[in-house]
Design goal:
- With 462 residues, the protein is α/β, with parallel strands linked by helices.
- It has a seven-stranded mixed β-sheet. A three-stranded antiparallel β-sheet has the order 3-5-4.
- The longest helix is centred in the C-terminal third of the chain and has 17 residues.
- The chain is globular.
Length: 462
């Protein structure tokens, strides 16, 4: 068994993460980074350490599941919680009556999700929220949890947060970060949580609401069912579970009852409705077979109308084995646009496994790599695009941005100049067009390139 196969087997057995052969690049890069970080003597020595060191296993798991998060991500779930689920729970008889409502954020990463829940509840319940609701949050990596407890965040994580809420609950620090108010931090208890563990930490039983969003994308169907069953057992009778908007169908496997409120899907462990008695004669025709091409066309139309979550839900209806490269390209782009960076990278790798020269997959993969700080990987993907499509202004523009990030002013100027010239000329006949329309015109984009060129010239770049 080679090193990557052994690594795949180990992380599947110990923490449930599923990576197929299409994810080889992700695994290889993660393995190299952790070998360097731990100063291990090669892959075999690192794997031996991984089998014996639970902390290192959690660190690797965290690296493999990097999924950029931010405050008020998928805010419709916070509205569902505050406007519907909390009132429903408060209307029930509780014993004793003052028992707080319990909420768990499973797979909380660096804390933006549970803190968003706390802020939303503060908005809804005011000072009463501190006593009325108890929030727990768990994730794999102790280092990530320590960052979550510290509650310090960069400005980019506030891109979906109302500026008034940011001003109310955060204080700007001298280093440019923002410190979350102690009163909000005190409402979240963080703990180490391996969702594949046989036994969860004591005290997690009796949850009223579980947020389990953008986590099951890393699990294969058997693991997904196992984790879902474990989470269901944590819920009080009539408790609720919320998954990511693109994960509803994948988790609707009969363990929990699906509900919809104002177009927002969620689950509960209320008893499933008994099956209806079969009529004496068939009165309904079976549904027509799924048409993947139609699903893709409908998803593309929704995406172009900026209804991204609905488009992702439509794409999720296509079984994995029937997803075309075009469907995977669109899925990757939508996942990136909605902030699911690791999921977008996984979709890119699936598309590239079928078509190594998929233009859209290479471009999105480069954007993912840049967002994750993997500049060499981003540069490699863009070089492949330019090799097959030298007139692709998007690749030259992305490469210019990458060079500018690295401080390579001359290289950045060269690529901005090429992008500007390509945007000035009419696209050649048959040139591939972006899947989604740009918010900026070609003229606006050309002016942006010229502005960057002027700034670089002022810095002395040729």
């Amino acid at each position: 068994m080679n090193d990557l196969a052994a690594l795949r087997t180990l992380i599947k057995e110990r923490i449930g993460l599923h990576f197929d052969a299409a994810s080889e690049t992700t695994l290889r890069e993660a393995l190299a980074r952790r070998i360097a970080h731990t100063a291990s003597d090669g892959p075999a020595a690192y794997l031996a350490r991984l089998r014996a060191d639970e902390t290192e296993l959690m660190a690797l798991g965290s690296l493999l599941t990097i999924n950029e998060t931010y405050f008020y991500r998928e805010a419709q779930h916070l509205e569902l919680l505050t406007d519907h689920l909390i009132p429903t729970l408060r209307a029930r008889d509780r014993a004793p009556p003052e028992t707080p409502i319990r909420i768990l954020s499973a797979g909380c990463s660096s804390g933006e999700e549970p803190y968003s829940i706390a802020i939303a509840l503060e908005q809804r319940l005011g000072a009463e929220a501190a006593a009325a609701v108890r929030i727990s949050a768990g994730d794999l990596d102790p280092e990530v949890l320590e960052r979550a407890r510290a509650g310090r965040y960069g400005a980019f994580t506030f891109r979906a947060l109302d500026p008034a809420l940011r001003a109310r609950h955060f204080t700007r620090l001298d280093n440019g970060q923002h410190q979350l108010a102690a009163a909000i931090r005190a409402r979240v208890d963080f703990l180490a949580l391996n969702l594949l563990a046989r036994d969860y930490p004591p005290g997690l039983q009796g949850q009223d609401v579980i947020f389990y969003r953008n986590v099951s994308i890393y699990f294969d169907p058997p693991t997904r069912a196992q984790v879902l069953a474990q989470l269901a057992r944590l819920l009080n009778p009539g408790g609720f579970l919320i998954v990511g908007v693109a994960e509803t169908l994948a988790n609707d496997i009969g363990l929990l009852r699906q509900h919809v409120h104002r177009g927002i899907f969620y689950f509960s462990n209320a008893p499933l409705a008994p099956p209806a008695l079969a009529p004496s004669r068939p009165v309904r025709r079976p549904p027509p077979p799924l048409d993947p091409a139609r699903c893709y066309t409908e998803a593309l139309a929704l995406a172009r109308a900026e209804r991204y979550t609905e488009a992702l839900t439509r794409l999720a209806m296509i079984p994995l084995e029937r997803r075309s490269v075009a469907a995977l390209e669109l899925r990757a782009l939508l996942e990136f646009e909605t902030g699911a960076i690791a999921a977008a990278q996984a979709s890119c790798e699936q598309a590239l496994a079928s078509d190594p020269w998929s233009l859209e997959a290479l471009l999105v993969s480069a954007r993912c790599a840049r967002r994750q700080g993997r500049t060499q990987a981003a540069s490699t993907q863009l070089a492949r695009v330019i090799y097959v499509q030298p007139e692709c202004w998007r690749a030259h523009y992305q490469l210019a941005e990458l060079h500018r990030d690295e401080g390579a002013a001359a290289s950045a100027a060269r690529e901005y100049r090429i992008a500007r010239n390509l945007l000035t000329a009419e696209p050649p006949p048959g040139a591939p067009r972006p899947l989604l329309p740009s918010a900026l015109s070609r003229r606006d984009l050309r002016l942006i390139c010229e502005r960057h060129l002027a700034r670089l010239a002022a810095q002395g770049a040729d």
